[in-house]
Structure formats: structure tokens, C-alpha cells
Amino acid sequence: xxxxxxxxxxxxxxxxxxxxxxxxxxxxxxxxxxxxxxxxxxxxxxxxxxxxxxxxxxxxxxxxxxxxxxxxxxxxxxxxxxxxxxxxxxxxxxxxxxxxxxxxxxxxxxxxxxxxxxxxxxxxxxxxxxxxxxxxxxxxxxxxxxxxxxxxxxxxxxxxxxxxxxxxxxxxxxxxxxxxxxxxxxxxxxxxxxxxxxxxxxxxxxxxxxxxxxxxxxxxxxxxxxxxxxxxxxxxxxxxxxxxxxxxxxxxxxxxxxxxxxxxxxxxxxxxxxxxxxxxxxxxxxxxxxxxxxxxxxxxxxxxxxxxxxxxxxxxxxxxxxxxxxxxxxxxxxxxxxxxxxxxxxxxxxxxxxxxxxxxxxxxxxxxxxxxxxxxxxxxxxxxxxxxxxxxxxxxxxxxxxxxxxxxxxxxxxxxxxxxxxxxxxxxxxxxxxxxxxxxxxxxxxxxxxxxxxxxxxxxxxxxxxxxxxxxxxxxxxxxxxxxxxxxxxxxxxxxxxxxxxxxxxxxxxxxxxxxxxxxxxxxxxxxxxxxxxxxxxxxxxxxxxxxxxxxxxxxxxxxxxxxxxxxxxxxxxxxxxxxxxxxxxxxxxxxxxxxxxxxxxxxxxxxxxxxxxxxxxxxxxxxxxxxxxxxxxxxxxxxxxxxxxxxxxxxxxxxxxxxxxxxxxxxxxxxxxxxxxxxxxxxxxxxxxxxxxxxxxxxxxxxxxxxxxxxxxxxxxxxxxxxxxxxxxxxxxxxxxxxxxxxxxxxxxxxxxxxxxxxxxxxxxxxxxxxxxxxxxxxxxxxxxxxxxxxxxxxxxxxxxxxxxxxxxxxxxxxxxxxxxxxxxxxxxxxxxxxxxxxxxxxxxxxxxxxxxxxxxxxxxxxxxxxxxxxxxxxxxxxxxxxxxxxxxxxxxxxxxxxxxxxxxxxxxxxxxxxxxxxxxxxxxxxxxxxxxxxxxxxxxxxxxxxxxxxxxxxx
Length: 957
Known about the structure:
twelve-stranded mixed sheet, about 50% helix
């Protein structure tokens, strides 16, 4: 019997696939795309986390990413021969080899760049008269006998340092070399000698035999200790006066290390092991942090001391790099999880809708089988086998394509995701069919007659889901959306919860306005309006499942679009906060002024729309705070509005504003600049120079008691109060009276500032020129260089380009773009599936009505009017769901890690998520347009077919 059953099932599957190849192909394509997206997502996350970790390690300073093991010189109680042997290359190389073998996974060493040797940890004073002394302080030099010099440098002049005879701690002559940069700055020439004193004050003569050029100056060999490559002029910490001296490093021969043991420069033995991030992956970061902690102060350190000696220490900054990377990953993960869960839910709903559509199309066939004695198990098994033949290969192919498209990442999360897609589709159709045919049904019921009252079980189920979703959203709103320590599933499920609530409520409320609208429309002469509203109110296309899919897709697309728009806005605003305008010209120092000729030349350049000369003086001491004064500073009507995204508002307390930046401006040009750059409105009329604040003639001495009106930041206004207060500046001594406040100005980045009319100052010469427009960068810099002095030129466009994406940021943005595109695609597919589900009934309706005199144009209007209420319901619900999701999640989402992280000098104030109107409106409008287009195409197609084709004898439709 079993053999016969199996033999009978094969023809069934082949027959079904040959009968409906289009449906099978469409299902396979849908499963293929969904499985590809499901499998590609975890691999894409792994890929950008891996690239981000490697990028952070590779771009960090070599001194931070290098692993270094060091121990003091051998003990003085040891025999001299033993001490010398431990400082020579063979012994150092043996220990280095042991350390490399003992490195725990996932740490890997960049073996060609490994260096070891002996170095002095305390610089020694070099008193040679030919060495430079900038401020009469002799240079202090370090000495290192390091391996691999010939492999990592080329000889520029002279000869390589060697050891003609064996060097011991008693040796008093050694050879050395310096780099080209050290030779240039310290005036070192081949053949020069430098004296290094021993602990007994005996001289060791170091002869410079060669000058070398690093092969890879930025490589770890030369950059782990930058003084190896480049000398530095540093301040003398022991001098009561500001004095500087040179410091650098002399490279001794590789086997000259024993000579350093006799010095008082605290020699140490070291092994530098550059890390190789090529084999690291994103999931390795937690294990890497644990391994580094163990090496620094744990079991790993004990193993290091077994190899290098009991006094060895392990030091690296790699742990801090990995921790910073983990913080960025933890900040980005919740944002990505929202997109993943939202799109995953939409895809699941669309797959369920597809199963429902296939089940409805085969309802009559399966009902006939059930009425002739077919068992639920037999029917379900046949459907499962039939579906599996199509779905499982498509899921496997989707997984393969995902692996090929995203080549780096763990395979098992993607395999589980693709298997989940295939399992869902394989189970959906048999389960749906089983539930529909538990009892054999008789043929004859009309498809467009939907029960006005859903069953009690459905009502209870919907109420249960509604209560759970509302409770979850309420709990989420009360405790906040900030997830400490990783991704919070409840936070990530916010779009699903809001969409579920909206779908359940809207489906119940949807028929009510349509029924109310049907009554007045029924009194009209035409039948189109009444028929469309009547059918829209009872059409099964308005069920909860299609609406849930649309709401989820629209909410996720709105959220993703708002995230992407917020990232761009934050970067634009940060660039504007840094430059102050479209272009900025300032002196090389804070007190350098710009000549009038340069201002006129730049103002006349092509592309310059406006120029605002500004005089900026930083760190002006403010008077003591006024006790008990609210310090609104006459802000009524003068508040320029809030600060832009990502900038601080300067609303600190009066006690914090002990020093502020004084900004002298031309009110008219500066107000125009504020308008052109989108900054808060500047109340220029309040700085009008009249009375005691009238413009001063050039060179005139001002009265210290005259009062200048000033626009201040909120904190400065609170400190100065509303009465005139005296201040002392390089631009003159005067009193200021706050007449208004603004939260932000273009010329200064500090949050505390005081803006006055520059015409009333004793020193009016501008220190900064702010430009609006799009001047040519080359011509602008040429005009500035033609002035004969050195000035700094900053462009807003170039500053904006600094905010380039790290691999982690770029990967997260790509995932969000893909989420928005996938959400839009699934939304369109949900609309198509909901309309296709009732397409046969609509075609039959048109055929019947055409026999009663309905024209083609009226048929198109009927279908368009029928689809419009459902599309408007989905669009309106999508707008509300997207807005509610963003409002719910915005308090706990900071876009700084996505927008500004990793850029030195950028403002790291929180950048909160804001609703982007285009991201809300465009997907919703697309749903309405698609519904109308599908209805029109369906009406046009139905008009081409005759009524006889649709209406057959005995057909109950």
C-alpha cells in the first residue's frame, strides 16, 4: 500500500506543476527573493562589523594597536656574561618566537613587522655643541638596538651600523644611524659622534655611520614609537619658564644592546608584536577583549612571564580600540534591528498572504476532494509535497546567492533564515487549507458576501492581540527606548506592535464610514458610487492581513527614510557648525586680521553671493553673575529659535559662562548670512549703532562707560543680567547690555558668546570672513594666497566630505537603504496580492454589469472607486503608524554613531531621530497610485474579454 501511495503521489505533483506553471514559478521567485534577503541580512551585518573592526585596528595609531612585552634589564646580581647574552639577538629572537607561538586566538601577529631589542626608557642629555638648542636647552636622545633595520629601511647615505667586534656592557664604542628627518632637524651628519654616559659617568662614543629612510614610515615598525622616525620639539616640564628642547632616537646596531646595560638610562628589553586584523571577524570582538584582558592581568600574563621572564609586563591599546568598536556596534545594532524585524514581519505576512491566495484559488478543487472522501492528512500531505518541490530548491538557491553576494560572514545564521522562509511557506498552504476544509462545504456561496459579524473566536483572538500590543507599547513608553547593553527585542518590535494595533482597529472601524457614506450616495442618480462603496465595505481585500502588511511596510520605510535623512541632516549641520558658512577665511592666529583689499577681492569673486566680515575674540572674561537675576537678557522676540540638529544650544547655567567669545559683526550682512545658511534668525535691528554706541572714527579712543547693545547666548545672558556690565577686551573696554539672545551663531563654535556691532569697537579689523554661495575653491585659495600672507581657507563642502562613512557606518546605511527598498517592494506586492485575491469576482461583476448596459469607462470608474477607500485606509494608517513609531523610538535613538562617529573634532552632541515628511508621504502616495493603476489595468483587461467568457452556465459566481 505504501508503495502504491508513493507511486500515486508523483503523478499528482507533476500534474499540478504542469497545470499551473505560472503560479508555481511566481511562488518560487517570491521565495527565492525572500530567502535571499533573509540569508543576506545576517551575513551583511557580520560583514560590516568585520570590516569595521579591521578598519578601526588598521587606522589606529600603531602605538595603540601593537602588542608590546617588556621587562627591565637583567639583574645586577647575575654574571656579566649572562646579562650580555640576554640582551643579544639570539636570545631575544628565541623569546620572541615563543611569544608568537603563545599568542591566544583570535590574536594574530603581523610577523614581518615584529621587532625586538634593547632600548633606553629614559632620554639622555646630549651636550654636543653642534646639536640645535632652540631655547638654550640641549636635546635629549633615546637609544635603541632594534632588529630588522635593514628590512624596514633603505640606506640614504653612509653605511649600515655594525658591530665589528662583540659588544658587551664594557664596550665604549658603538655604531648607530638616524633617519632622514632626525638628521635634518638635529643637524646630524655621517661621521658625527654623540657621547652617552654610563652609570659610572664613563663616556660611550656613538658614531653615526649612516642615514636611513623608512620603507613604510606609517608602518608599525616606525610608528609604534614615532621618535624612531621623527624627532619632536617638546616643552621642558622641569623649567619654570616655557622652554622647549629636541628629543629623538638613535638607532644602534642590532647586536649593540649589551652596551646600553651599563648606562643610567634605564634600559629595557622589549618585543613589539603588531597585530594582524586580517583574520578577525566582527563576532570575535568579545573574545578578543577577554583575551587582551587576560594578557594584561590574568592567566595570559602568567604564560607570557613563563616565556619572557618573571618581571615581564604586557601593554597594548588594542583593547580600547575593540571596546570603542563594540560601543559603536551596540549603538548601531538597535537601529538595524528595527529595520530587520519590520521587514521580516512584512515578508512573513506577504508569504502568508500568498498562501492564502493560492488556497482560495484552489478552494473549489480541494472542497471537491474533501467531499469525495479525501482526508485532511492526505490533502495536506499532497499540498506539502507539492509546495516543497517548488519552495525548498528556491530557498536553497536564495541561500547560495546570498553567500555569493555577501562573501564574508557566518553561514549558519543565513542558513537558518533561509530555512525559516522555506518552512513558513511549506507549512502555510497546508495549514490554511486544513483550517478551511475541516468540514466539507457545499458549493454555491457568493465570494463577495462577507459576514458582517466575525466569529467569536476571531473577536477574542483580535482582542487578545490588541491588549497585548497596547500593553507592550505602554510598557515601552514608560520605561523608555534606551537599551543598555545591546538590542532590546521590545524596542525593535515597536513598528510591528504599532502596526498590529492600527491594523486591528482600522479593520473594525473601516466599514462604518463606508456604510454612512453609502446612504447619501444611494440617493444619487448614478449607480457607480453606490456599487463601489458597497463592494468596498464588504470586500475581503480589506482584511487584517493585507492591511497589516501595508502598515508594517510603510512604517519601516518611513523609519528607515527618517534615519537616512537624519544622518544627512546631522552631517550637514555639523559641517555648518564647524565652518560657519559656505566658506570661511581666517588668519593663521586668533589675533591676525584680514586686510580690506582681501575682503573686497574675495567679495567680487564669481559664485560668492554674500560676505560677512567678523571680528572674533576668544576667552573674554565675563563679569560675576548677577545674583537672583533670571538673566533672560531681554530675549523677548529676540530668540532666534532652536539650534539645528546635532549642535549644542548653549543653554548652560550662568556659572558656566565665565568666559565667552566676543563677536563683532556688521548686523545687516550677518543677518543675511544667517538667513542664507539656515541659522536661527538674527535680530540685526537691535544692534543698531546709535547714541552711545555710535560708530567710532578710526583710531579714536572710546569711553569705557559707553554702553553697547549685545546679542548673547542664553548662558551669557543669564550671567550678565539685564543691566549694563563692564568688560575688558582687546577690541576696547566698554559696557554691554543684553538686548536679545540667540542659541547659535555662525562665527564661533563655543556655546558661550556675545555679539556686538563691530562699528562701535575701537579695533574694527575683521579676523574672519564668512562667505555664502559656491565659489570655486581654486580661485578662492588663489585670491587668498595673492594677498601675500598666510590665511586659512575652509569650505563647507570639504568639511562635509570629512564625514565619510567607516565600514560599519556604510554597512548600516546600505542595510537601511535595502530595508526601505524591500519595504516598498513588499508593500506593492501586498497591494497586488490583496487585489488579485478578489480579481475573479470583480471580473465576473463587470461581465454581469456589461450585460446590463455598463460601459467600459463606467467599469473603470467602478473598480477605481472600489479600490480607493482601501488604499486611502492603508495610506492613512501607514502615515499614522510611521509617525507613531518614530515618536515612540526617537527618545532612545542617537544617530551620532551613524552620522558623526570617528571624525576628529566633530560635534558629538546627541542627534535625535526626527520625522521626515518625504519618507512618510512618498510610500503612502505610492500605495494609492498603485492601487488605482492596478484597478485601471484590471478594468481594461476585463473589457477586452467578452461576457460569455466570464459567465458560464452553472457558474455560481
